[in-house]
Amino acid sequence: MSKQETPQRSAGFFESLLTVAGAITGAVFGYDNGEWPGLFAGAIVLGGIGMWVGRTADFIIKVALLIIILLLNAAIRRFIWEFISNMLG
């Protein structure tokens, strides 16, 4: 029996960027306040928050681009229909 491979989810631009930035910021803040245990705890906590904020930002940008594409599609269709109507009538 063959194993079914699960597809890998790739991270978006903002998710990757904000996860790394959050982890670095959390590590610095945690080290200043709690030495080595604080470094790891801060990196994990702020890295997770950065990942969540990045996913949300990626989703909002995808939705905005989808709306823009749909509006452009409607405008182009209306222009072509008006052009054809004017040429025939």
Task: Kindly describe this structure.
The chain has 89 residues and is mainly alpha-helical. Helices cover 85% and strands 0% of the residues. The protein contains 1 helix and no strands. The longest helix has 76 residues, at 13-88.
What structural keywords apply?
elongated, single chain, mainly alpha, 89 residues
What order do the helices and strands come in, and which of them pair?
Blueprint: H1 13-88
Described by strand count, sense and barrel closure, the largest sheet is: none
The low-confidence runs, each spanning 5 or more residues with pLDDT under 50, are none
Q: Average pLDDT across residues?
A: 89
Determine the fraction of residues in helical runs and give it as a percent range.
over 70%
Structural class: mainly alpha
The geometry reads as elongated
Determine Rg (CA atoms, Å). Answer: 24 Å
Approximate strand percentage? under 5%
